[in-house]
Amino acid sequence: MKIDNSGKVAAAYGAPVRAAKKEDAATTASQTASRSESVAISSQGLAKAAQAAEVFDADKVAAIKAAIAAGEFKINPEAIADSLIASTRELLAG
User: Fold this and answer.
1) How far apart (Å, rounded) are the C-alpha atoms in residues 82 and 76?
2) For the segment 59-70, what is each residue's pLDDT rounded down to a tens digit?
3) pTM of the predicted protein model
4) Where is the Anti-sigma-28 factor FlgM C-terminal domain (predicted)?
């Protein structure tokens, strides 16, 4: 099995990093310190974010924990591999 876009990963790690000069760092720090920014979240935005967030299912966690302790928890390596490949493709595409 071949994973596509493997060249993009190697290229991303091979890029040289330029060290900042002391003057550049001082200028950037002073510009950042003199600038003031703020962010506000509306009640509608907060409500939407709360709805979009996944809910923690304590019962499901307890059931999985009990199955692991009893030695009955089954792992599906194919599903894990498929999910890892899908995540990798998503990261490489973005």
Assistant:
1) 10
2) 999 999 999 999
3) 0.34
4) 39-85
